[in-house]
Amino acid sequence: MTDALLSPENAATIQLTRKDFVSDQEVRWCPGCGDYSILAQTQKAMPDFGYKKEDIVFISGIGCSGRLPYYMNTYGFHTIHGRAPTLATGLKAARPDLMVWVITGDGDALSIGGNHVIHSMRRNVDINLIMFNNRIYGLTKGQASPTSEFGKRTKSTPLGSVDTPIIPLTIALAAEASFVARSVDTHTEHLQETLERAGRHKGSSFVEVLQNCNIFNDGAWRDFTDREVREDRMLILEHGKPMIFGKDRDKGIRLSGLQPEIVTIGEGGISETDLLIHDEHAEEPHLALMLSRMFWPAFPVPVGVLRSVDRPTHDQLIDEQIAGAIAKLGAGDLDDVLNGGETWTVE
Amino acid sequence: MTATKDLEPDVQELERVTIRFAGDSGDGMQLTGTQFTRTAAVFGNDISTLPDFPAEIRAPAGSLPGVSGFQISFSSSTIHTPGDQPDVLVAMNPAALKTNVGDLPAGGALIVNKDAFTQQNLNKAAYTSNPLTDGSLKDFALFEVPISTLNERSLDGLDMTSKQKDLTKNFFALGLMFWLYERSMEPTIQWVNTKFGARPVVAEANKRALRAGYAFGETTEAFHTHYRVRPAKLEPGTYRNITGNEATALGFLTASRLADRELFYGSYPITPASEILHQLSGYKTFGVKTFQAEDEIAAIGAAIGASYGGALALTASSGPGIALKTEAMGLAVMVELPLVVVDVQRAGPSTGMPTKNEQADLLQVMFGRNSDSPLPVVAPATPGECFDLAIEACRLALKYMTPVVYLSDAFLATGSEPWRIPATADMPRIGVKNASDPTTFRPYERDPETLARPWAVPGTAGLEHRIGGLEKADVTGNVSYDPDNHHQMQLYRQAKVAGIARDIPPLEVFGPERGDLLILGWGSTFGAIRSAAELLAADGAAVAHAHMRHLNPFPANTEAVLRSYRRVLIPEVNLGQLLMLVRARYLIDAVGYDKVRGKPFRIGEIVDEARRLLAQDA
Questions:
Q1: Per the CB < 8 Å rule, is A346 touching B44?
Q2: Most-buried pick from A326, B216, B323, B515 (CB within 10 A)?
Q3: Which of B43, B303, B421 sits opposite A338 (nearest CB)?
Q4: Which of A274, A303, A275, A309 is nearest to A291 (CA)?
Q5: Interatomic CA distance for residues B368 and B403, integer angstroms
Q6: Which CATH number fits domain A2-220+312-323: 3.90.230.10, 3.40.640.10, 3.50.80.10, 3.40.50.970?
Q7: Tens digit of pLDDT for each residue in A17-72?
C-alpha cells in the first residue's frame, strides 16, 4: 500500500504544494539559524511523495530541531529527549499506512538517544530520520555535543573537550541502516533532493544534515561548505559514477590497499578509470563505511547517498507474521483462548 | 491439616492440606508443584499456590541460595491463601531442608531424599552434623526415603546416563505425593506424553519415576495412611487454573476485543513481568502486536507511539523498569493519550530481590514523576482478579484519555488459583470514539463529563495538529507559557483523574458495617487479610475487611467506610505506603502493620496484630 502511495501519479492526484505544509505557528528559531533552510526544503519535498498531509507524521525529540513538527501542517508529536525513534517505531508498527519522519539533533540522536537510533536502524523501521548536526548543544546554550571536535572549547569544556567525537554516518551504517546520506543546510537543492530520496526509501533512512548554529557554534562547517571552497573540499556522491571533485573536476579518490587516497587526474598516468566508482547498493557496507570516515582536511567531505539497500521493514515483518499465523490457524477466537488448557466444570 | 473424620483404617479425610516441595533449583521443584496443582485443580479442589524460587537460574548445586520451593494449598472449602505453614515438607537435599524446615510446624510431615544427605551436601548446606541422625528433627514425622536410589532402580535398562536418570527424581517424589493424597497420575502422564513426545526415552523415564513413587507409597510400610481432600463447592461454572500473569494477558486481550482496538504491547524482559510478554506474543492470530524493545524507555515510547496511532497500547515492567519509564509516563500524562503501564512489583529498592514479593511501588507510581502528574492506579487482589482489573485499566485509559498504572506483584503473577471462565458475550463493551469532524475538532477541548480530550489519530483528514511535552493552551493545544493557563491545565489534569471516583465501584466491606476494627488492604494481601477477618469474626470480634482495587482515585465512599470503625489497621508488604495516603487524605489515625520479608503475609500474623490492637482498646 505504501508503494502505491509513493507514486508520482498519486502526487499528481493529490496535488499539494509547499504552502499546504506550512502550519499557522510562528517559527521561533534564532534569525540566521540553519534550521530555517532545513524546514523550507522539508516543506518543499513533501508534495512529491504522494501522501496526503493527514497521512504524514513528524516526530521529534528535544533540542532546537525538536520544534520542527510545530511548523509542519501535518500530524506532529514533540516528544521527550532522545526518544523520538521509539515513538516512531510504535506508531509505524501500529500504523504502517503512515509516512513517519523523525526530526532530531546530534545531542538528541547520538547522546541521550543513541541506543534508540541504533535499534530503530537495525530493525529497519520504515522511518526517515533527519539529524541536524551543528556539533553543539544549542537549546541549553552552548555545551559540547557528541559530535563536537576533540579539544573543542565550549561552556562545559573551557579547557577543551576530552571526548572523541562520534561519526554519525559510521554509527548508522554499523547499525545496519538501509539508507544513509548526508547533506548541508545551505546547499538547498542538494538537501531537497536528499530528503526526497530518503522519503522514497522503504526502511530506515538516516540523513545527517550539516547545520550551522550561528549563535553557539557559528561556522561549524564553513571550512568546507562555504561557496568559495566547497567544490574543492566536498565530494558529491553519485551512484555508478567515479568519485571526482574539485573546481576543475581534476581530483579523484582512488583506493590504495585498504585506504582511500586523493589523486589528480592526468598526473602520473592517472585517469578516470583508476578512480573508485560509487555504489550505493553494494551488499556489504565497506565502501560506505570508508566514505563515512573521510573528512576535511584529510579528504573532501562526501555528501549524498552513501548507502541505499532494500530489506524487509519492521512493520512488514510484523504484519507478515500475523497474516501467516492467521492463514495457518484462522483468526483467533477469544472464548477458545479463555477456555484453553485444562478446564473442569462445577455443577 | 485438620482431620474431619476417620474412614477406613488407612484413609483419613482432611479439609485442607498444604504441601511444600523444596529442592535444588535444578531439581524441577517448580514443575513438580505445577503438576500437583493441575491435578488438584482438575480434581475440583480450591487451590492457592506460592512459587518461591531464586533469581539465579542455576546457583551452585546443593547450595543454600540455590533452593527452589513451591507451596500449594488445596482444600474442600474456599481458601484465600497458599497456607501459612506447610503440613508436609518434601526436601530433596540438605540445603532445602535447612532453608524450609523452620516453617514446618511441630508434628508436620517431613519427607526427605535420604540419598542426598551426603557429607558433601551437608557441608554445602553448612550442617555440622547430619540432621537425620542428630535428633534435631524429632518434632516432625520424619520419612527418610532413598528417592535417588529407588528412582534409578526403576529406570533400569533405559538408555540414559545416571545424571539424566537423576533428573527425573522429582517425579518420584510427585508420584509419592499423588499416592499419599489419592490423586490420579493421569493428567501428569498425559502432560509427559505431550511434552516429551519427540523424546520417547525421556517420556518413559518420567512416567516410570512417577509410577515408582506412587508404588512406593502403596507398598512401603512407612506410610500407614493416605489422605482424602474432597472437591470444593465452588460457584457453578467452567474453571481453569490460572496465574496472575496469565490472567493479566488474557484480560488485555479481552479488553482489546471489547474496545475493538488493536493491542500493542511494548516491553523489555524483566522478572516477574516477562511472562505477560511471552503470553501476548502467542496471540498473533488476534493481530496482537508485541514489541520487545531495546530498553524500558523504548518499550513505553513505542507504546505511546502506537496509542497516538489509535491502538490500545500497553507496556509492562517491574519497579526498576518503571523507574526508567518515568519520564515517558509524564509525557503520556501531558499529551493525554490512553496507555496502560503494568508494574509487577518485586522486592526492592534497586535490583532488590527480583523473584521475591513486595508491594512497595505504590508511592513510586503515584508520585514518581516531575511536577504534579496524576494518573489512575488500579491493583488486582487475586490471580484470577488480574483479568478483571486488566480490563478495568484499559477502560479507564480509553475513556479518560490517560495513562493508567496497573499494580500487580510477584505473588499474584506467579501464584495461581481456580478461575471461573467468564462468558465474553456478557461483558460490557468499551466504547471508544475518535475525533473526525474538522469543523468542531480542537485538540484540547475537554469532554464536560470526563474532562478527556478528543483522540484524533493520524490519517484523519483535516485534524492535523501537533502535540508534545510542552504545556498546552487550553482548548487549542498550542504551546503555551501563559501562567494562568498552566495553573488551569494542572487543575484540569488533577480534576480529570479525581473525577474517576464517580465511575468506579464503592469500597465493599466484608463483615459488620460498623465495629471495632477495619482491616484495610490492597493487592495480594487480600487472601491473608480475608482469612484473618474470617477467623476473627468466628471468634465474635467486630472486625471487617475492605480491599482497595482502585488506589487513585480512592472509591468515593472510602472515608465513610473508614470512619465506621474505631480503629483502622492497614497491613502492607511495604513500610506503610497506603497508610501514608489514607492518613494524608482523610486525617484518620489508621495504623500500619508492615512486613517486608519477600514473602506474603501469614494469616496468623494479621490475626495476632488485630488482636493486639483490639486488646489495647479493651
A1: yes
A2: B216
A3: B421
A4: A303
A5: 14
A6: 3.40.50.970
A7: 999 999 999 999 999 999 999 999 999 999 999 999 999 999 999 999 999 999 99
